[in-house]
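My hope is that you will study the protein record below before we discuss the fold together.
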Amino acid sequence: MLEGRVAVNGVVTRELATLADPSRDVITVDGRVLPAAEPKRYVLLHKPRGYVTTRHDPAGRPVVTELVSGPERLYPVGRLDADVEGLLLLTNDGPLTHRLLHPRYGVPRRYEAEVEGRVAVPDLARWRRGAVLDDGPARPMTVELLRSGPTASHLELTFAEGRKHEVKRYCDAMGHPVIRLKRIGFGPLELATLSPGRWRELSRAELSALRAATAASAPRRDR
């Protein structure tokens, strides 16, 4: 830049502190125009069961990006197993994705889990204490019993680490394997009434709240 090789909107700049927006400004280096940056986009999808959380699948299974229209190359933020449904964020904002997935921020993931067997209210103390999994101790931020029956129970669990298969492995450790799993919250985002396979753009308020979630330290767990 100091050699005068860079120009912004036709004006040569030699200042290292010069600010430019690749999505709006024309930036040239040695007379060659740099390609404009792709506009940032943020999509909330209700991932259906049977879809894999990737852009391409060698086995030919349906992928989540097939469900969202638009010219941008969007990428899933994290993963949901093929047999898991629910809230999935897709974006082309790499830095935000990195922060959302980094353990230091502890962005909570909230799930509804149907599990085998009867879970009673007195059992919740054991669920909240945590368990040791094959990759170390795990403890949910919250555990709530939604309803219980003789052969299956429904729980709402919140985890902050995003470890692989964490919810399924945790329920296995509790002696109640998962029958069906659905993610209903990710940080400040809520799945609400969005139907499987449907998607929507994030609102400005949601995007601001999502960014704020990665600006704070990891939340404390229930005691």
About this structure: The chain has two domains: 1-37, 42-213.
